[in-house]
Amino acid sequence: MNFENKNFNRINVAALIVDENSRFLICKRSKNKKFLPGIWHFPGGKVEKGESNIQALQRELIEEINIKNISEFIDLKISHEYIVKEEKHKTEFYFCKTTDTPNINNEENEALKFILPVEVKDYINDRSTTILINAVQKVLNENQ
Predict the structure, then answer these.
(1) Which of 46, 52, 107, 131 is the most exposed place for a label (fewest CB within 10 A)?
(2) Is the model's pLDDT at 65 over the cut of 70?
(3) How far apart are CA 95 and CA 112, in angstroms?
(4) Running DSSP on this structure, what letter comes out for residue 117?
């Protein structure tokens, strides 16, 4: 889905990156951010006009956490829809594989952490979290 989707004011993409120990990468937003400062989230961001979801995710991963080499993108066919200041937003989630080591690359985030699937709800607790974790577990099981 591209930015031109008329049903939403903004489309976002997020990456579920899993390390060799089956832990998920999460990022903590900078306390200086105006929107949701200090929250933990999966890396990603806004799909700009003219970008595909994959192009946007590649750009965001480079900008935010210096991940340049993604060997696989799997559309989890899961999204999270929400309202921000009367605008309809949608975040679509992708499972990604990389051999790069993430690091903080700009002022978007102040911390990065790999956590076990059972810990995700301690950091990110919205209605899509359980569905996401289950979807990634299924992908991991299928690729073993």
Answers:
(1) 107
(2) yes
(3) 17
(4) G
59: left (phi over 0), alpha (psi -120 to 50) or beta: alpha
Domains of the chain: total: 1
Tell me, what's the pLDDT at 123? Answer: 86
State how far the alpha carbon of 24 is from the alpha carbons of 8, 33, 131, 141, in Å.
28, 23, 14, 15
Tokens read off for 135 = 């979807």
* Sign of torsion over alpha carbons 19, 90, 82, 75: negative
Q: Tell whether 5 is covered by a domain.
A: no
Q: What is the pLDDT of residue 4?
A: 46
Domain that holds residue 88: 10-142
Using CA atoms, how far apart are residues 13 and 44, in angstroms rounded to an integer?
A: 5
Residue 1 placed within a domain? no
Q: How far apart are the first and last CA of the chain?
A: 29
Mean pLDDT of the chain: 84
Does some domain include residue 48? yes
CATH code at position 35: 3.90.79.10
Convert the pLDDT of each residue in 88-100 to its tens digit. Answer: 988 899 999 888 8
Residue 108 · residue 33 · CB < 8 Å: yes
